[in-house]
Design goal:
Blueprint: H1 19-38, E1 48-51, E2 57-60, H2 63-69, H3 75-90, H4 95-114, H5 119-140, H6 147-157, H7 167-181
Antiparallel strand pairs: 1-2
Helix pairs in contact: 1-3, 1-4, 2-3, 3-4, 6-7
Length: 239
């Protein structure tokens, strides 16, 4: 045995692929994952019914929810799941679109690989295309956005989230909340707190212009309502 030669110990039944075969397998995994969520895209997108090992059922057409519920083991497919999670964290929407675009890029790269174009060249071309796409998006961006357009954007983002019956009132409430904390074009969503309570309908959601502290009364004899009260906030235990 030559010194320095790596030794791989793999579980029984493991298949190890190298070179072009490994590339094709990775591309196939990405394409299959993209096709899984493709039918959920758009105004006529279909819902998916997911059943976990405990028999719990989830019905949704939200891309990131579908991908989180799936038991994905392939490394390349897991990377697409991370794409969806990043899109959700950074933007809050567009997860399905991000995965589908990634799947299409993989599909096109397979054609380029068949033409014996090196993967490094393909990646470089995709980076240049991304820069060009960013330039075009900046050129067509709308600077002055009306409230009506903001409401429509919010309603679109809520499609498939189980809020179809209350989309319009919720969209108006969301726009009101965002405009309250918006400053110089920047919106810090950490300044918006969402409290959920059981026992009512979603249409009864309301915007509170103030501070909500979700705590129970220490004693049942304490008042439930106070008007013009002086409040002190103490960030330390009272002992």
């Amino acid at each position: 045995m030559a010194q320095g030669q790596p030794i791989f110990i793999l579980p029984e039944g493991t298949n190890r692929l190298l070179g072009r075969d490994a590339q094709r397998t990775n591309i196939l995994a990405g394409k299959v994952l993209a096709e899984t969520v493709r039918t959920t895209l758009g105004p006529k997108g279909m819902d998916k019914m997911l059943v976990d090992g405990l028999g719990d059922i989830v019905v949704t057409n939200d891309g990131v929810t579908i991908l989180k519920e799936m038991d994905i083991e392939h490394p390349a497919a897991k990377m697409l799941v991370e794409v969806a999670k990043t899109q959700e964290d950074e933007v809050g929407d567009g997860t399905t679109t991000a995965v589908i675009i990634a799947g299409e890029l993989l599909k096109k790269s397979e054609t380029l690989l068949d033409m014996d174009i090196h993967p490094t060249i393909i990646a470089m071309g995709y980076r240049q295309a991304a820069e060009k796409a960013q330039e075009i998006l900046d050129d067509i961006a709308i600077e002055d956005i009306s409230r009506d357009m903001l409401v429509k954007v919010a309603m679109t983002a809520m499609t498939g989230k189980g809020t179809e019956k209350a989309r319009e009132p919720l969209a108006n409430l969301i726009v009101d909340a965002v405009q309250q904390v918006a400053g110089d074009g920047e919106v810090d969503t950490d300044h918006i707190k969402i409290e959920k309570k059981d026992g009512a309908v979603v249409e009864e959601s309301t915007l509170i212009q103030g501070v909500i502290i979700d705590k129970e009364k220490v004693h049942p004899g304490m008042p439930s309502e106070l008007t013009d009260a002086k409040v002190v906030l103490i960030n330390s235990p009272l002992e």
